[in-house]
Amino acid sequence: MKFLLTVGILAVTVATASAQATENESKMKTEAKTIACKLTTPELQERKRTVIADLKKLLVERVETDNGVKYKFESNDEIIDKVSTFIKTERLCCDFFDFTLSVAAETGFMWLELSGPPGTKEYISEEIGL
Length: 130
Description:
By secondary structure, this protein is an alpha+beta fold. It is built from 4 helices and 4 strands; from the N terminus they run H-H-E-E-H-E-E-H.
């Protein structure tokens, strides 16, 4: 009986150590991400002038979160396409962003959340201006 109890404790200890190692690896990967846009300054300025300016006009609400910003838009097909295009292109230049898109049928609105490692919220405000 003592043998079974010892094995059970060992299994719990190994599982806990494994979970902690996975959590530590995840934190290191997040911390290793560099918060920087891969576009050149002229490319970023053009993006702000066109794509981002377009989204600003459509913005209904902006809410800051712990690690980023949430944006509320109407959820018609045209705006969904514009937001989707923004996500596709933004993934290429700002690979540290995590994107969450939520479209609710009953409200007629959608939310786009940009988040990431510490410093992401400040980057969005200072560099993107959205």
